[in-house]
Amino acid sequence: MVNKEKSARLFWTLFKSTFVLSAFTFGGGYVIVPLMQKKFVEELKWIESDEMLDLVALGQSAPGAIAVNTSILVGYRMAGLLGALVTVFGTVAPPLIIITIISYFYMNFRENPIVDALMIGMQAGVAAVIVNVVIGMVSGVIKQRDVVNTLLLLAAFVASYFFDVHVVLIIFLAGLVGFINLSYRAKMGVGK
């Protein structure tokens, strides 16, 4: 009986956490990621910070929305396939509900200056949160004190920003270099 209660509590916490994060986050996956980190790493202490960074990287490299992909990975990490289903439903339900409601009233407030001002204000807030995410992810890579990863980070930025290299190629090459680096470090007996 205790295991069923504990299991039900885990699933409810997974659903409630992802539902609330998704419902009150505007701006896409890069906005929800730091909130997921705060919830699952800092508050619930279910996942280590480095592992969360890995889950975000996997979520970003998989096709689809980063918020959904990362929530699936967190759910799977915590409770297997059923956990992944619970978290994906918790993440997808709020936007689905909100967009359904908005679609009914869209024509009425499409030209409303108050709604327009709200959207502009939310864009500024979203930009600030995205900058915070970037700073957090970059500092996570730099804290690892791995020169190859730091150079890889800089090279990926330069390739994307200055040379407009396609993101799929950058992800593939970064994954390949990361794999080679990890294999080399493991072979040489160098720590993480």
TrEMBL record:
- One Pfam annotation reads Chromate_transp
| Membrane topology reported for the UniProt record | Multi-pass membrane protein
Annotated GO molecular function terms are: chromate transmembrane transporter activity
Q: This protein's superkingdom?
A: Bacteria
Bilayer-crossing residues are 12-33, 81-106, 118-139, 151-180
Q: Where in the cell is it found?
A: Cell membrane
Keyword vocabulary terms for this entry: Cell membrane, Membrane, Transmembrane, Transmembrane helix
GO CC terms for this protein? plasma membrane
What family name appears in the similarity comment? Belongs to the chromate ion transporter (CHR) (TC 2.A.51) family.
- The protein's name in its UniProt record: Chromate transporter
Q: Tell me the classification of the organism that encodes this protein.
A: Bacteria, Bacillati, Bacillota, Bacilli, Lactobacillales
